[in-house]
Each structure stands twice: as C-alpha cells, then as structure tokens.
Amino acid sequence: MNLEKRAGTARTDTDPQDFWEELRLSTQSRIGLGRAGDSLPTDRVLEFRAAHAAARDAVHLPLDADELTRQVEALGLGSPVRVTSRAGSRAEYLRRPDLGRLPADLAGVPHSGADLGFVLGDGLSPRALMDHGAGLLGALAEELSDRYSFAPPVIATEARVALGDHIAEAMGVRTLIVLIGERPGLSVADSLGIYLTHLPRAGRTDADRNCVSNIHPPEGLSYAQAAKVLSGLVSGARKLGRSGVDLKDTSRSDALSSGEVLTLD
C-alpha cells in the first residue's frame, strides 16, 4: 500500500516540481532538487557550482577602496580615512585572523571625541561592502544624525571586527559601529553585518558587542530596518552603560505591540 492510500488522500496529476517551485519562492534554501538517476539534475549541479564560485569570489576579490571612498564621501559625513590591518595580503588575512584584528598604522585617524564612530570593513566579503556599504551608512546617518555627533568615517581593509576597537580608541568615540562583510554562503555572497560596541577599547570580546546581520536587500534585511534596529541598540547601550550580552534588541516586540508591520523588503 502506498503512502497516499495509507494517508487516505486521493492521487492527483499535479507535477511535483510545481509544488516545489511554489515553495522556493519563500526560501533561498535548496529544496526539491529532484533526481537524475543516482545524481542531481544537471541544472541543479550547475547552480550549486555557480553559487560556490560566487562565494569564493566574494572572499578573494579585493575591495575597490577608491570607489567606496567616493561613495562614502558623497554622503557628506566628512572625508573618509583609510586604514589597513597588519595582514599584508588577502591570502595572509585569510590564514592569520589575528593580524586582521590589529592596525598597521592609525596616525591618519583624527581624534574627534564624537558620540559615534563608523568603520566600514571589507571582512570576509568585500563584495558585500561594495554592494551595500554606502547605502547602509546613509540610512544609519539619516536615522541617527538628529541625536548624535559623528566622527569622520573610516574604511578598513583586510579587517576583522576587532580592528574597529583600535580605530575607535584613536577616534575617541563613545560608541563604535562597524559595517563589515559577512562570511559568504551558498545562498548569499553579499550579506553585510553591523557590530555595535559601546565604550570600545582594545581587548573587547564578542560578548561585549551586539550584531545586526543578514543585511542585503531585497532578499535580506533592508537598510531602513537595520538602521531602526541599530538605533534602538545605540539608545539602549547609552542608557545601560554597556553593550553585548546584557543589551537586547527589542525593536520587533516594540513594533508588534504598536501594530507596526515588519517586512524584509
């Protein structure tokens, strides 16, 4: 007895692929791939290889720092300062995460004493920073500029998140906001993350930070929604006197209680 009879359901002539095509509209996961003998259909194999190649390229292709500098400068937040970590090349950066956390030279970073400092780091996906860095920074500035002062933005190459702590000390800011390319996956190669550290200093750990991730519109979090979440975290960190595990994102519960509709547009 087949499963359909056992379940008491009637057979239909619907193509199984029609069923999966509809479900694929709601997820980026690879579902209902089908079979061709003992393997996957050729189209699915080629799609996987293309996604894998895109993820590898996102990690290895260097940041176009000149173009990003022009984009950031156009936002009117001050002339961007460029720094690099102690990793001398992309290959060394990938082999030595510790070097990506240490600055090569911060002599060009001005001490501003501002409320907020922004660091744009290439991280593990320079492509993500090129695709979304300036747009996200613009949304953050629009959301936060009426309440806080900003230091001139810093663009950091071969950067890990902790590099921002050293830069923040040089800037003299109370709260650090790092925009950095996230590790690419087989469904998303250009996702950007935000890391917030209140009272940053060298030696801070991941437990001292808050993260807003999966920023890559239109499929992921939008710039505007990410800016709203971060705004709440900045406000909460300043009230609490610290960031990290003790600071919670309440933006979704606040929105639900107020009747606001949340979308990932």
- Return the string of H and E elements: HHHHEHHEHEHEEEHH
Stretches with pLDDT under 50, minimum 5 residues: 1-12, 260-265
Average pLDDT number: 87
Report the sheet-strand fraction. Answer: 5-15%
Strand order of the largest sheet: 1-3-2-4-5-6
Descriptive key words:
single chain; 265 residues; alpha/beta; 6-stranded mixed sheet; 10 helices; 13% strand; globular; lyase; cobalamin; EutC; cobalt; EC 4.3.1.7
Describe the SSE topology:
Blueprint: H1 3-6, H2 16-24, H3 42-60, H4 65-73, E1 81-84, H5 90-95, H6 97-100, E2 116-121, H7 126-144, E3 154-157, H8 163-171, E4 175-181, E5 192-198, E6 209-215, H9 223-240, H10 251-258
Parallel strand pairs: 1-3, 2-3, 2-4
Antiparallel strand pairs: 4-5, 5-6
Helix pairs in contact: 4-7, 7-9
Give a quick rundown of the structure.
The protein has 265 residues and is of the alpha/beta class. It is built from 10 helices and 6 strands, in the order ααααβααβαβαβββαα.
How would you describe what is shown here?
The N terminus and C terminus are likely disordered. It is globular and about 65 Å long. Helix 7 packs across helix 9. The protein contains ten helices and six strands; from the N terminus they run ααααβααβαβαβββαα. Strands 1-3-2-4-5-6 form a six-stranded mixed β-sheet, with helices on both faces. It is α/β, with parallel strands linked by helices.
